[in-house]
Amino acid sequence: MKIENFFTLLSILSIVPVTFAQLRVGFYNNSCPSAETIVRNLVSDEFKSDPTITAALLRMNFHDCFVGGCDGSILLNSTDSERFFGPNLSVRGFELIDEIKTELEAQCPSNVSCADIMALATRDSVVLAGGPNYNITTGRRDGLKTNASGVFDLIGPTASVAAFLSFFGDKTMTTLDAVALLGAHTVGVGSCGLFRDRLTNFNGTGLPDPSMDSDLVAKSTPLTFDNAFFGQIRARRGVLQLDQRLATDEATSSVVAQYAADNDLFKRQFAIAMVKLGAVNVLTGEDGEIRTNCWEFNKN
Hints:
The structure is a single chain. This protein has 300 residues and is mainly α. It folds into two domains: 18-154, Peroxidase, domain 1 (Orthogonal Bundle); 161-268, Peroxidase, domain 2 (Orthogonal Bundle), CATH 1.10.420.10. Helices cover 43% and strands 1% of the residues. The protein is built from twelve helices and two strands. Strands 1-2 form a two-stranded antiparallel sheet. Helix 7 packs across helix 12.
């Protein structure tokens, strides 16, 4: 992508409206004025003791929205729910969402959806880690079904860049959005099982992945939301295979270079992409429900 085209498209995306369908900023201003403050305070308390909660909530949010839409279905705690299949087995942060929901039910019963709690908590954790503070549209309702089989369609760490862009494109995400969202890997740590083969037995060769810097050392800032991730993958220090491919594939390499050079640009585009992500297949109005417990459907 040419630099001038990149900035032109970025300028267009920067004016994405803050209202999608029936979602809007400040949805709870009248019905539960303290809602966003309650979420923010409880996330802040958690962040003080566990700053890795930012990475946990981002992952939870992505995995919810990319399987059936942003409807809180990942929070359901039953043996046949999304929560207990495939990559979701390592998703965490559920206790914080439940804690927030308990407080909101005490203040504003049956008012604030679990899907909105997740979106707000994720944003607040990103801000605490040094990331962008962006407006969150609210008004989502919680889903009435779970899609465990859909969990296996989530993009994996060894996917090709073409598959990655197609996966995000199906959710109306541009290349700029997709690369910015994967920049969330700038916070947190990865399970060794996701990249062990790159270190010791790449593609069955018994050798390391030749695209990885042989002198790879820990020079990242895993608790700070910044653009360090992009500099790392440009230096062949990407841990996950997909991450590394972004820096060399012609479809994404110029975007990676732009984000690596401009932290503010990355944060700005990440915020735009998160707002778009939060509107994927949402339930609003009379659809779905407002769960009284995030981990189970309401009892009729």
